[in-house]
Description:
The complex is a heterodimer. By secondary structure, chain A is of the alpha+beta class. Chain A has 14 helices and 15 strands. Chain A has helices at residues 2-10, 56-60, 69-75, 86-103, 126-141, 153-160, 176-180, 193-201, 207-211, 215-222, 224-234, 267-287, 320-332, 353-357; strands at residues 19-21, 30-31, 37-38, 40-41, 53-54, 80-82, 107-109, 115-117, 147-149, 168-170, 250-261, 290-301, 306-317, 340-352, 362-363. The longest helix of chain A has 21 residues, at 267-287. The mean pLDDT of chain A is 88. By secondary structure, chain B is an alpha+beta fold. Chain B has three domains: 2-114, Roll (DNA Polymerase III, Chain A, domain 2); 127-247, DNA Polymerase III, subunit A, domain 2 (DNA Polymerase III, Chain A, domain 2, Roll); 255-362, Roll (DNA Polymerase III, Chain A, domain 2). Helices cover 18% and strands 46% of the residues of chain B. Chain B has six helices and 23 strands. Chain B has helices at residues 7-18, 71-80, 133-143, 198-207, 261-272, 322-331; strands at 2-6, 32-38, 41-47, 51-58, 65-70, 86-92, 95-100, 103-110, 127-132, 158-173, 177-197, 214-220, 223-228, 231-236, 255-260, 281-287, 290-296, 302-308, 316-321, 336-341, 348-352, 355-362, 365-366. In chain B, a hairpin with a 2-residue loop joins β21 and β22 (355-362). Chain B is elongated, with a radius of gyration of 25 Å. The chains are: A alpha+beta, B alpha+beta. Chains A and B meet through β13, α13 and β15 of A and β23 of B.
Amino acid sequence: MFFAGVELLHYPQLKGLPVVVGGRSIDMPRQLADGRWQFARLGDYAGRGVVTTSTYEARALGVFSAMGLMKAAAKAPDAIILPANFDAYRHYSRLFKQAVRDIAPHVEDRGIDEIYIDLTDHTEPSQALAQRLKDAVYSATGLTCSICIAPNKLLAKIGSDLDKPDGLTLLDESSLQSRIWPLSVSKINGIGPKAVAKLATIDIHTIAELAQAEVGLLQSTFGRSYAAWLLNVSNGQDNRPVTTYSEPKSISRETTFERDLHVRHDRARLGEIFTSLCERVAQDLKAKRYMAGTVGIKLRYQDFTSVTRDLTLPSPISDAAAIRKAAGECLKRAPLTKKIRLLGVKLSQLMPMEDSENPTQKQAPLPFE
Amino acid sequence: MNIKINRDTLLKPLSSVTSIVERRHTLPILSNLLLEAKDEKIVLTATDLEMQISLALQTPVGGELSTTISAKKLLDICRSLPENAEITMATAESRIQVKTGKSRFNLQTLPAADYPVMTKATGTTYTVVSIDQKSLKRLFKQVEFAMAQQDIRYYLNGLLFEVNGNRLNVVGTDGHRLSFTSTELAQTYEKQELILPRKTVIELIKLLDDSEEEVTIEIASGQVNFSFGDIKLISKVIDGKFPDYTRVIPVGHKNSFNVDRMTILLAMQRASILSNEKYRGIRMVLGSDSLRLISTNSEQEEAEEELEIAYGGDSLDIGFNVTYMIDVLNNVNCDTVTFSFADANSSCLVTVADDETYKYVVMPMRI
């Protein structure tokens, strides 16, 4: 919704209309000679992109994030389609985060449009504080946001979804049973579709049912540690601190092709894409000032099955050519009989460049050539 | 189908072939070994698809058997049985019963016909080289520690095995140091080279003994076979170009000294305690008749060892990865070693008094 919100700031005339973000740059709105804007319609879309986000009006027509655009077009042919403008989203993301930090500096970044704020040290009444944060975000960006103030991150996350859009929710332990328990278990971050299905088999659908479930039954279904976690979260327990900084574990880039590619017949094209992915991921790595100890690839085939392969290097690397070489070694180990739909390159075992770039001690290689 | 065999007869051959069975594998049958008994002979075969060991045992077994069975479980069972236990093995459908005294084990089997047996390459010409077990084992042990491990330059994860004229040259390198050894062969051959995979080398060192018994080595394209004693080992070779080792073995390093191997080994080991844990650097400081080994770690702690040597060459202050030095000192079998240098930016050559063919080259480390 954040992306759609930013788009509506640019094109306020689209307010109230079903709008979908995603797709190709040729769908960029054009300004006509008379000053009016011409927008592309979803019904005219052809390709294999997916919906990045959609407005509430589009959602009412059944169009949701991650849906194929062609499928979305069948449901809402008259919806406006806009290509994603990530530079603009990043710009607004920075603006809103800065507005929050000016009030409460202890912020955990959870992506482009989501943050956790530690408000433990604020004495201001919660309602007023939440309103002040919302006002600050609005005046900095023109965007509304949903805020929940709760005793922990788990409840804050669930609560922030309760009164969307433009929500302001206050939760405390006493509201757990009245507001959280009636919800579906799928509202809990960490209970995915598979776990939801498995819970349904033991007749658990709501968070209340989960909270009152028998420990033994959960343990035999999910194993000890996940069962313990399920009981904790369904009772609103969460001890995770708000962490303002975390070391990235991996950096990756992946791309879905315009059409499925064949390893031999499309060798040249595949090679180009592969090299460019490695170059981009190398740039990301450099920008974050890391070196990578492990290079991995991900392949998704035409039948949507995926494989990954990785290679740990004797010493960390950072340049695109070395990444390309290592990723090429990984590719050799992957089955390549089916056509490929998606290719990704992932760097992990990251270490800060300061340590590795100028080692105080440097081993010379044998001069074979 | 059933056979009888003495536990002690089976145990050692069983553990020899089982060592190549991988714990993690894609094909379930690869965790099994092939057991074939017929005509008073048992053949045990294990493979990881890269190499295969077959071991033939001449022993009265009183029957026939042909099946595949979990290598690890059979080994664990044999190990834990009392000495000299008489084992009976009987197959029925997809199971095998291993029985001795009052112990019974019923194990799953997979059909012998499904076992992915590696066969000797046919239709190719072989170069056949003979050498005694003891010499081959010594050659491998002199160089195996210098091989790379999981290096992206896959051709370094093995040993160069080069037959040239009447010489057999064996070389291992990880790109920072190189170990070279050579021996004379009874015959003369055209030049042939191959790269033996790391795992094959390590298994061969375990299987070879210190006898004068002959090892027959058959070199074909893409494959090499070793036959010795009761053992036949087939291995794929690494497809790649081994770097030209002759370019990095220095000649004419004029600054050299001899030193007692154990003395310098112990000094290196002591000094290594306070070397940087990651880079393992150590400085060798050479002056008139003296060698100092100096190490410091990231906490600015220091170790210094001083050795009296006979040295009249240039003063030199040169750094090395101490692990590379300890490796060579641990693996050469002689009392005196010679270190030779050119300058602080060039390699160090380590040679030994009683084997003039042996050469170990190690590149310096900037400290």
